[in-house]
Design a protein that fits this description.
It contains 24 helices and 17 strands. By secondary structure, the protein is of the alpha+beta class. The chain has a six-stranded mixed beta sheet with strand order 2-1-6-3-4-5. A six-stranded mixed beta sheet has the order 8-7-12-9-10-11. The chain has a three-stranded antiparallel beta sheet with strand order 13-14-15. Helix 2 packs across helix 19 and helix 2 packs parallel to helix 21.
């Protein structure tokens, strides 16, 4: 009898309209843990190399982990894995809220979706069953919020819905998987893969409990982990994340001169405080919001009570969104940024890539690479709130200039030409988030080596380089700092394990591999050590690398945009710095057991049982 797992997974073939419950392989579970680990192993084993991400053969995997839906620290997440249409790499993207725990309570550890439905369809998963439902009246006519309400009305009021949104319906490569209305598995275009399969949504509900190997020991282990989190100023109950949300970082990062402004042209934004977490708390915050079982409460419910955007309310905006729809576009109007965030949620767009792509277009416009005729009359200048909102709406609808921009800055640059590719601030095709690595060089290496493209949550080197957690590292050192590169590997491995467990990464501001081992042991009944946890993470990371190598990725792709390599930071505390990526890569590959092209060696694969 499995513990920590429900013991069943669901094989869904949309073409054949079949849904078959199958037994969970416990050796597979122990080896890859769950979530992100399950996703990459299934993709590696079942997906033929060079499969078109929009073909019916591509797989879409919704997964939980052993800690999901338990009383562990912040256990309210799930993952979506597929081959990314944005990057062509392996993709794992995650989200919080309540969808993941309810999938487990419905009796399944994960769902594998393949094929393509004949017409718009959604799945209703409940009580260890799966029904196919007609979504033709929802498809193409309702936004994310309206579709969520309609599906709940058709199934159960307390059901939780994960859906692709209008952006996914028209196959925008920036389409997120939206759940709980406001939460997004945002990166890499997983929502577009849903759209390509005519899969509008998966609604879940259940009341089953997660079985535990040793309930009393597990209760103590989770209590100890929560108590340890209370020692961190970031993750404790009244800490920075609870008080200001992720937006606490706006002023901090800006003061360090690495808050990317006007498409990474500089790292200092003069309007940072106007869109900061402090300003949001003092002027717009209604209450904190929480994912399932969360002990932190970093979510924001905000409302605009006056001015031209009066009446707009909802979850967020988060730090990355305040940056991408704010500083990246030169916008310092908090209400306009909040409105832009609402548009992205309504259409199901990844706010990081959407905002960064608008910023790219603004730079192209100001440099004369695109004209007002190209934009359909939009005066697409930095700082224009009107241009920001109009452009996002067109991207969400797939109309006008939005047709070009809805596939991200790399795809747009290919269509625009004229050297515009220099201004796409993306790694492997995925737009980078809100930290300029010219002033945090370990974080630059994390961007470059991220298996899913430009990403801050594969290894959050901002913690040691800017916040001094778990210890302070010199943010300006490169390949000569062996300790930094070793810490990067540890962060990558721990992140992979946490994403496979599946709980919120924010807990790692307070706890690490030892605490995860202490929770996993009484949860699953298997004896875990801290080294075991990191080994799972290493295994998952390495298999992702092997998947990408099979797709043609290598050293040439482990790089950063031209601006960060050739253009010194023009002002602020990081003035004069670039990222010396090549020597850092060489040292990183050696440490990771990769060859000179960044591919896993046979010895590395064998050592991890791959």
């Amino acid at each position: 009898m499995p513990r920590g797992y429900m013991g069943k997974w669901l094989e869904v073939n949309l073409t054949k309209e079949t849904a078959e419950p199958r037994d969970l392989d416990m050796t597979f579970a122990k080896t890859f843990l769950g979530g992100r680990g399950f996703g990459v192993k299934i993709l590696y084993d079942r997906l033929k190399p060079h499969t078109n991400p929009f073909s019916p053969e591509n797989l879409l995997i919704f997964a939980t982990g052993p800690l999901t839906g338990t009383t562990a620290t912040c256990p309210g997440r799930y993952t979506v894995s597929t081959k990314s249409p944005l990057t062509g790499t392996v993709l794992d993207t995650g989200s919080g809220g309540t969808w993941g725990p309810f999938l487990k309570r419905a009796g399944f550890d994960y769902i594998v979706v393949t094929g393509k439905a004949k017409a718009a369809t959604y799945l209703w998963v409940h009580d260890q069953t799966c029904d196919f439902r007609d979504a033709t009246k929802i498809w193409g006519s309702l936004d994310v919020f309206e579709a969520d309400d309609a599906i709940k009305k058709d199934t159960r009021k307390r059901a939780v819905v994960a859906q692709c949104g209008p952006a996914g319906e028209h196959l925008s490569l920036l389409a997120a998987v939206m759940n709980d209305k406001y939460r997004a598995a945002g990166r890499g275009g997983a929502g577009a893969v849903m759209g390509s399969k005519n899969l509008k949504a998966i609604a879940v509900y259940g009341t089953m409990k997660v079985p535990l190997a040793h309930p009393r020991r597990f209760k103590k282990a989770t209590k100890d982990a929560v108590n340890t989190m209370q020692e961190s100023d970031v993750s404790k109950a009244d800490g920075a994340l609870h008080t200001y949300g992720t937006a606490v970082l706006v002023n901090v990062i800006n003061e360090h001169g690495i808050f990317p402004t006007r498409n990474f042209q500089t790292g200092v934004f003069e309007g940072a405080d106007k869109i900061s977490g402090e300003t949001l708390k003092d002027t717009r915050l209604v209450r904190n919001t929480y994912c399932w079982g969360c002990q932190i409460g970093c979510g924001r419910w905000s409302r605009i009570d006056s001015g031209p955007y009066k009446g707009i309310e909802g979850e967020g905006p988060e730090y990355e969104t305040l940056w991408s729809l704010g500083a990246a576009c030169g916008v310092d109007d908090l209400d306009a940024v909040s409105s832009a965030n609402l548009l992205c949620n309504m259409y199901g767009l990844d706010t990081i890539s959407a905002g960064s792509t608008v910023a790219f277009a603004m730079e192209c416009y100001e440099r004369g690479l695109i004209t007002q005729e190209d934009t359909g009359g939009i005066d697409l200048k930095f700082g224009s709130t009107d241009a920001l909102l109009k452009t996002l709406e067109l991207m969400g609808k797939g109309e006008g200039i939005g047709v070009i921009l809805a596939d991200g800055s790399r795809a747009a640059a290919k269509k625009i030409g004229l050297g515009s590719e220099k201004f796409s601030m993306a790694v492997k095709g995925m737009e980078m988030p809100a930290y300029d690595p010219r002033g945090a060089k370990g974080h630059g290496l994390a961007y470059a080596t991220s298996n899913r493209g430009g990403c801050h949550v594969r290894a959050y080197m901002i913690a040691p380089e800017i916040m001094g957690v778990p210890e302070e590292l010199d943010r300006f050192t490169g390949h000569e700092d062996t300790k930094k590169i070793e810490m990067l590997k540890t962060f990558q491995d721990l992140t992979s394990a946490v994403d496979s467990s599946v709980v919120c990464l924010f807990v790692t501001f307070g706890i690490g591999a030892p605490e995860f081992a202490q929770m996993l042991t009484p949860c699953t009944g298997w004896a875990w050590t801290a080294d075991d946890v990191l080994e799972v993470g290493d295994r998952v990371w390495t298999l992702e690398r092997a998947f990408n190598a099979r797709e043609g990725f290598g050293r040439k792709d482990d790089t950063l945009p031209w601006r960060l390599l050739a253009g010194p930071m023009p002002e602020g505390p990081a003035k004069g710095h670039v990222v010396p990526i090549e020597p850092m890569l060489t040292k990183y590959y050696e440490l990771r057991g990769l060859d000179s092209e960044g591919h896993p060696t046979p010895e590395k694969m064998q050592a991890l049982g791959l």
